[in-house]
Specification:
The complex is a heterodimer of chains A (178) and B (372). Helices cover 71% and strands 4% of the residues of chain A. Chain A has a two-stranded antiparallel ribbon with strand order 1-2. In chain A, helix 4 runs antiparallel to helix 5, helix 4 runs parallel beside helix 6 and helix 7 packs across helix 8. The radius of gyration of chain A is 16 Å and the shape is globular. The two termini of chain A are 25 Å apart. In chain B, the strands form 2 sheets. In chain B, strands 1-2-5-4-3-12 form a 6-stranded antiparallel β-barrel. Chain B is built from 5 helices and 12 strands. In chain B, 32% of the residues lie in helices and 20% in strands. The C terminus of chain B is likely disordered. In chain B, a hairpin with a 7-residue loop joins strand 1 and strand 2. Chain B is extended. With 372 residues, chain B is an alpha+beta fold. Classes of the chains: A mainly alpha (178), B alpha+beta (372). The interface between A and B is large, with 51 and 49 residues.
Chain lengths: 178, 372
C-alpha cells in the first residue's frame, strides 16, 4: 500500500468509528438546505444551481457510515424535496436513497474526512444524481428532458467546491464515538 | 430467512425503500392523482415563511437604501458637493419609478386584456437544481385552479400545476413536461411548444412542407384549452427539416423580463393572431398606406376578422353581414323574414388595434345567405 492509498483507505482502528451528530443537525440541516433552495435561490439567480439537499444527504451518509441510515436519510430528504416540486413524489426520493446508500458504503472503505475525497465524492454524486433524475424522467415517466452534459459537469464542479467548506462547517457540530 | 435478511440487511432495506417509492410513483402515474396531503402540508408550512421573508426583504431593502443615502450625504458634505445629493435623490426616484413601472405595466395590461386576470407574486422556487417551477402567493382561496394559464405582459409564462390553499405551483414554459399549442404568425402553421429544461423550447408536430421562418413570432393557438388564443408564445430561433417533421426551436418570450410578478388567467378570452409587419430593409423608410381620397368609397374591412379585405368575395360577405346586423337579422338562425339587400348597410366598425375577444371560431366567415 503506497502512502497515498494509506491516506485514503481506512485503517483497521478507524473502521468502526462513527460520527455522532447533534439530533438538531439531523433535523435542521436538511430543512435549511431545502429552504435555501426555494428562498435564497429566488433572489440570487446564480445560487439556483446549488443542490444543497444533495450535499447534506452525502454528508450525513458519509459521517454516519451506515448504509441503512444513509438510504433512509436520502429517502426522507428526497421526499421533502419532491413535496415542493412539480414532479411526482418519489423522483428525488429514489435518487437520494441511492445516493445515501452508496455514500455510506463508500465511507466504510475510505477516509471520508479527506477534503480531496470529499470533493471527488460530491462531484461524482452530483453527476450521478442529475443523470439518474434525467433517466427516471425519460424512461420511467416518458417525459422530455434535456441533459446538457457540459453544463452538468460544470455544476458538479461548483457544487463540489461548495461542499468542502459546507462539510467543514458541519464537522464542527459533531462528536465522534466508537 | 432470518439469516438471509440479517446477512443482507443493508441491501434489503435499500430495496424496501426503493420499492416503496416506486409503488408511490406508480400509484400517482396510474391514477393520475397526487398524494395531495403531503404537498399541502409542505406548501402550507413553507408559504407563510416565504411571505414573511418577502416582507422582511422589501423592508430591509428600504432600510438599506436609507442607510446608503445617509452615507452618501455624509460623503457629499465632506466633499462639499451638492451634486452628489441630487444624484442620490435621482437614484432613489429611479428605483421607485422602476418598481412603480413594473406594477403599473401589470396593472395596465390586466385592465386592457379581455381575459380576467389575477396578479400574483412569486414567493419561492420549486426544489431541484436550476428548478424551472415557482410558487406564487395566490392559491385555491383566491380562485386559482390547477391548469390555469400564467402569463406576463410579454407573453405566456407557464401553467398552474397545483393549487394549494395559500399558494400555487407554476410550471414555467421551459420546465420539462410543459406544452402549449402554438400557431405561427404568417402562414398559420400549428405546432406544440414544449419545455425540456433548457432556455429554448422545441416546437413539435410541424411538417417538413410547412414554412416556418427564423425570427417569426409564435402565438398561442388555443387548441390546448389552457392558453387563450393570440398570446405571444415565442420567437423561432432555428428551423430546419428533420426526419419525423420540421425541427423548430423557439425562444419563449414570456420570461424575458423575469418572473417576479405574473398574471393568472382566471377567465380566458380568445384573441386574434396579429398580422405580421411588412418586411423592412435597414435604412429604407416605408410610409403608411395613403388615406382615402375625399368622396371616394372607403375600403370596407370586416369587423370579425380585423384583417385587410383581400377579395371581392370578402367585401360582399362583409356587406351582407352588416346588412343583416343593421336589420336585426341573424343569417341561418330562423327561416322566414329575409333582409332587404337593397338598403345601405350600417357603416363599418373601426378596425381593432389590439387583440379582441373572438366571437366564435378562427376568422369566422359569415353564414351562407339564403336566396329568394
Amino acid at each position: 500500500m503506497n502512502p497515498f492509498e494509506e491516506r485514503l483507505l481506512l485503517r483497521r482502528g478507524r473502521q468502526s468509528r462513527t460520527t455522532k451528530l447533534n439530533p438538531l443537525v439531523w433535523i435542521l440541516s436538511p430543512i435549511l438546505a431545502i429552504l435555501f433552495q426555494v428562498y435564497v435561490a429566488r433572489h440570487v439567480d446564480a445560487l439556483s444551481y446549488l443542490e444543497l439537499p444533495l450535499l447534506i444527504t452525502v454528508y450525513l451518509a458519509l459521517m454516519r457510515r451506515s448504509p441503512i441510515v444513509g438510504a433512509a436519510a436520502g429517502a426522507v430528504i428526497g421526499l421533502m424535496q419532491d413535496s415542493l416540486s412539480a414532479q411526482y413524489l418519489g423522483m428525488f426520493g429514489i435518487v437520494k436513497t441511492l445516493v445515501g446508500y452508496f455514500a455510506a458504503s463508500v465511507s466504510m472503505r475510505f477516509d471520508v474526512e479527506n477534503s480531496a475525497l470529499r470533493f471527488l465524492l460530491s462531484f461524482f454524486f452530483f453527476l450521478f444524481h442529475q443523470l439518474f433524475v434525467w433517466l427516471l424522467t425519460r424512461a420511467l415517466l416518458g417525459q422530455p428532458m434535456e441533459l446538457q452534459i457540459p453544463q452538468t459537469v460544470i455544476l458538479a464542479f461548483l457544487n463540489a467546491v461548495v461542499a468542502i467548506p459546507l462539510f467543514m462547517i458541519l464537522d464542527r457540530l459533531r462528536s465522534e464515538t466508537r | 430467512m432470518e439469516t438471509f435478511l440479517s446477512r443482507y440487511r443493508n441491501i434489503s432495506v435499500l430495496l424496501l425503500l426503493l420499492a416503496g417509492q416506486l409503488l408511490l410513483l406508480a400509484y400517482q402515474v396510474k391514477s393520475g392523482q397526487d398524494v395531495r396531503l403531503i404537498r399541502v402540508w409542505a406548501v402550507t408550512a413553507v408559504a407563510p415563511l416565504a411571505n414573511v421573508s418577502e416582507w422582511v426583504r422589501e423592508r430591509g431593502a428600504r432600510f438599506g437604501e436609507m442607510f446608503a443615502v445617509r452615507g452618501l450625504r455624509e460623503e457629499n458634505k465632506r466633499l462639499k458637493s451638492e451634486l452628489g445629493q441630487i444624484k442620490v435623490q435621482n437614484n432613489l426616484l429611479k428605483a421607485e419609478i422602476s418598481t412603480a413601472d413594473r406594477a403599473k405595466a401589470l396593472s395596465i395590461y390586466a385592465q386592457t386584456s379581455p381575459s380576467k386576470l389575477l396578479a400574483a407574486r412569486v414567493i419561492f422556487l420549486g426544489t431541484g437544481a436550476n428548478s424551472r417551477t415557482v410558487f406564487v402567493d395566490r392559491g385555491s382561496r383566491d380562485g386559482v385552479m390547477k391548469g390555469m394559464a400564467v402569463i406576463t405582459p410579454d407573453g405566456i409564462a407557464g401553467r398552474v400545476t397545483a393549487a394549494y390553499p395559500t399558494a400555487s405551483l407554476v410550471s414555467l414554459v421551459t420546465s420539462p413536461g410543459f406544452a402549449a399549442g402554438v400557431i405561427s404568425q404568417k402562414p398559420k402553421v400549428r405546432g406544440t411548444m414544449k419545455g425540456v429544461g433548457s432556455s429554448l423550447c422545441p416546437v413539435d408536430h410541424i411538417e417538413n412542407r410547412d414554412t416556418v421562418e427564423v425570427g417569426e413570432w409564435l402565438y398561442t393557438s388555443g387548441d390546448d384549452r389552457i392558453f387563450p388564443k393570440g398570446l405571444p408564445a415565442g420567437i423561432v430561433r432555428s428551423a430546419r427539416e428533420g426526419r419525423g417533421g420540421k425541427d423548430v426551436v423557439a425562444e419563449p418570450v414570456g420570461l424575458r423580463s423575469g418572473v417576479d410578478e405574473v398574471l393568472i388567467v382566471i377567465g380566458g378570452v380568445h384573441g386574434l393572431i396579429p398580422d405580421p409587419l411588412p418586411p423592412s430593409s435597414p435604412g429604407v423608410q416605408i410610409l403608411e398606406p395613403p388615406p382615402a381620397e375625399p368622396g371616394s368609397v372607403p375600403v370596407e374591412e370586416p369587423a370579425t376578422g380585423g384583417g385587410v379585405v383581400r377579395t371581392d368575395a370578402d367585401r360582399l360577405m362583409d356587406r351582407y353581414r352588416r346588412i343583416g346586423e343593421s336589420q336585426g337579422h341573424s343569417f341561418g338562425a330562423a327561416p322566414g323574414r329575409v333582409p332587404d339587400f337593397n338598403r345601405a348597410p350600417a357603416p363599418p366598425k373601426p378596425a381593432p388595434t389590439t387583440a379582441q375577444p373572438e366571437a366564435g371560431t378562427d376568422a369566422q366567415p359569415a353564414a351562407p345567405v339564403k336566396k329568394q
